[in-house]
Design goal:
Largest sheet: 7 strands, antiparallel
Structural class: alpha+beta
Helix content: 25-40%
Bound molecules: flavin-adenine dinucleotide
Distance between the termini: 17 Å
Radius of gyration: 22 Å
Number of strands: 18
Oligomer: single chain
Number of helices: 15
Shape: globular
């Protein structure tokens, strides 16, 4: 839209919700142009609504004027989902940040979409409750972003993903209508396609303003260990052994040696020489349960090529291990300035085959590919490191990603376990869904957003 006209829209939004809640200076636009990928595109304005009514007012006006709206939480997405691919107005939820209620008896929280995941965790902890989805970005990412991405995290192995905890949602549609999918008690309504589709809808169906969430009691105690293996394949085989043993740890995270080299500073333990891969395993429950489960895990290690095991001896040591795990993503910048961060997911029994394929592809294309992730779920973060300014490296990285997706689909997997399709993977979606599947999804999108103004250019778009 021409800058003169966008100026008028900005003025009108300012008149409706307050001048301080809409910005279009270059400094602000630049801050809202990107997410955690290397992609960026300037929006034309950024709005900071504080209520559902204000979101309705902004989105309704954009609909009348044919301006795209891009819902945005904290911009930690790894698929370009909140990048304003076609310009338009970013609707930031950062001021929709109120925890409306936490009901201990009902084990339920009602929160605005911009509440940061860790803020909810801390408030819920005061009632000895927790919100199980714990993406490693939890210090920053928002509940709205978690719902839109159906985020997972290390605990997804035992507790499932965001979808399993969304009881109800309030959203603003592309035309500026407010729709509530309420849900009662601890069961969401049975026939509730709007809620079902909004979770994991990647911000393409409307703007989520409030979420009603199920909470669970906090576990009483934890046992946390880092086990060392001579190779990534050996660690991947150990994952299957753990899970076949009948024990269900809260988390089984794989960290290969290239990745571990980047975060070594965070662990004050001796890592044996020649370690090719590590598994971070956590069991939990009543003290005896957590202990028995860890003993059972250790027994399975006896059958794997384990090179040693370090069990956290205190809360401090446990926190250090998790701090190390959560620092992985940013620390990879030590290897190269950019990465293609893929999060492929395969049936757990196929994990050894997947890591073998990753190793072969990395060799074939002469690239460094640190790999880590939620191995217990079969979900691996495969990071193809590169310098985008080097054309040859870009071409090799793209070929490697093509090969990775091909191998994943052959193994019965999916091209995204949790980060979503967004901009980065949309050209591969037809391989996964088939052309009929893709066409059907386009019809669903059109029924929510007939004018194509909500987060255009993402996921199923052919633009
Ligand atoms: C270091 C790091 C670690 C990560 N670890 C994990 C992990 O363990 N598990 C995992 O699943 N992900 C992980 N992620 C990815 C990311 O943090 C999650 O996808 C998170 O849910 C995104 O939340 P956000 O608030 O940053 O959303 P954004 O990045 O702002 O947006 C993501 C998508 O959601 C949409 N959206 C945001 N808010 C709304 C709303 N209110 N209404 C409608 N649509 C909305 C946007 O349009 C966009 O498409 C990680 C990212 C980083 C950088």
């Amino acid at each position: 839209m021409a800058s003169e006209s966008i100026g008028k829209v900005v003025t009108e939004i300012g008149r409706r919700i307050g001048k301080h809640k809409i910005e279009n200076t270059l400094e602000i636009l630049t801050c809202y142009a990107f997410d955690a990928t290397n992609m960026s595109r300037l929006p034309q304005a950024v709005a900071f609504p504080e209520s559902c009514e204000e979101v309705r007012s902004i989105v309704g006006l954009c609909f009348e004027r044919g301006i795209p709206v891009i819902p945005r939480g904290a911009g930690t997405g790894f698929a370009g989902g909140s990048v304003p691919a076609s310009g338009g107005i970013v609707v930031s939820t950062e001021r929709l940040n109120r925890i409306i209620s936490i009901d201990q008896g009902e084990s339920m929280a009602v929160v605005q979409a911009g509440v940061v995941n860790s803020v909810l965790q801390k408030e819920a902890a005061k009632f000895r409750l927790m919100f199980p989805p714990d993406p490693s970005s939890l210090e920053v990412c928002t509940i709205g972003g978690n719902v839109a991405q159906d985020a997972g995290g290390p605990r997804a192995l035992k507790y499932g993903v965001t979808r399993d905890y969304v009881l109800g949602l309030e959203m603003v549609t592309s035309e500026g209508l407010v729709v509530e999918c309420k849900g009662t008690g601890l069961r969401p309504k049975r026939w509730d396609p709007v809620r079902t589709l909004l979770v994991g809808g990647e911000g393409t169906l409307g703007v989520i303003t409030t979420a009603r969430l199920r909470l669970l009691p906090q576990p009483e105690s934890f046992r946390t260990a880092l086990a060392f293996f001579d190779s990534t394949v050996a660690a991947a085989e150990a994952v299957s052994r753990i899970l076949a043993s009948g024990v269900l740890p809260a988390a089984v995270e794989l960290i290969d040696s290239d990745t571990m080299d980047c975060v070594r500073g965070f662990v004050s333990i001796d890592i044996p020489k020649g370690v090719g891969c590590s598994l971070l395993v956590e069991t939990e429950g009543r003290p005896s349960e957590a202990e028995d489960a860890m003993v059972a895990v250790e027994k399975t290690f006896a059958k794997s090529r384990t090179m040693g095991l370090k069990v956290a001896a205190s809360d401090r040591e446990r926190e250090d291990l998790w701090r190390m795990r959560r620092s992985i993503s940013p620390s990879l910048a030590r290897i190269a300035p950019c990465k293609m961060n893929e999060d492929v997911c395969v049936p757990r029994s196929r994990l050894p085959a997947l890591v073998e394929a990753v190793g072969n592809l990395a060799k074939r294309y002469c690239l460094r590919v640190p790999t880590f992730g939620h191995a217990g779920d079969g979900n691996l973060h495969v990071n193809v490191m590169l310098d985008r300014r080097k054309k040859d490296e870009m071409a090799r990285a793209e070929a490697m990603v093509n090969g990775l997706f091909e191998a994943t689909l052959k193994l019965g997997g999916t091209i995204s376990g949790e980060h979503g399709i967004g901009l980065t993977k949309r050209r591969f979606l037809a391989d996964q869904l088939g052309t009929d599947g893709l066409e059907f999804q386009r019809k669903i999108k059109a029924s929510f957003d007939p004018a194509g103004l909500v987060n255009p250019g993402k996921v199923i778009s052919d633009q």
